[in-house]
Predict the 3D structure of the following.
Amino acid sequence: QVQLVESGGGLVQAGDSLRLSCAASGRTFNQRGTGWFRQAPGKEREFVAAIDWSGPNTYYADSVKGRFTISRDNAQNRAYLQMNNLKPEDTAVYYCAAAPRYSFGNYYSTSNYEVWGQGTQVTVSS
């Protein structure tokens, strides 16, 4: 089984950048699609970005397209979310998630993922 730990969150100003990291344990991380989701207070968890297990295919929510970049380093068992030009509406707890092995159909749905990290807080002030 895989375990995930996010890091890199913090308090920043609008227009700043942050890089979130998702560290995975276990031997099957390179066989699993990975997604980033976020949840703001009082709102449902929403899709942010996803990357398939080998890395060439990436997907983004419209709200972050052009500002966020998802990547992965399977040799290091890590995934990343580079966030540029942050906005106050990006404020949320950000979660990393791993899909079942070699199964990555509905990458935008929380139900597609079987392993979740504990989350890292991102706060963007105006």
Notes: Residues 37 and 116 are 10 Å apart (CA to CA). The mean pLDDT is 96.
